[in-house]
Amino acid sequence: MEVVINRLLKNNRSVKLESFLKTTYPHMKLLALCLTLIVSMAAFAQDTSSVVVHKDPRIDLLIKKQAEINEEASKRAKTGKGFRLLIINTNKREEAINAKAMVYKYFPELKSYLYYQSPYFKLKAGNFKEKKDAEAYQKKLNKYFPKGVFIMPDAIELKDGKGNKINEEPNP
What we know:
Layout: H1 2-10, H2 15-44, H3 58-76, E1 79-90, H4 93-106, E2 112-117, E3 120-128, H5 131-142, E4 150-157
Antiparallel strand pairs: 1-3, 1-4, 2-3
């Protein structure tokens, strides 16, 4: 655009033309910018008033059923204060999974719990009401895990005298 203005000025056109172009040119830039913005906004505009969701009505039934199952399970699970054995605390997932397999293999009566607390995997085992029971298993587990097994106070699953979990409602 400036090239056009310079050519016109070199040809010694009238002074009126010179003043007209100098005052109009900056306004033309602004006008072009506004037009570009308006066109781009119109191109990306979306109609948000017409969203249609197509879903299978069975999904609502599944969600309701899962909510009922979760509610029932939380009613039945009784927890209390007790102890668990911390078998391994590592940032290597494979190592934690292998340790869990060893616990299942050599101590199938112990329930193991694998937790991930970033960046560590923690393997805990057992639901011991008394610390002396945990100490007995700690000695046995130390043979398989030489880095050490530690007794940790934790919330445990409570069981009745027969080894069954305590339920608020009797099983049918």
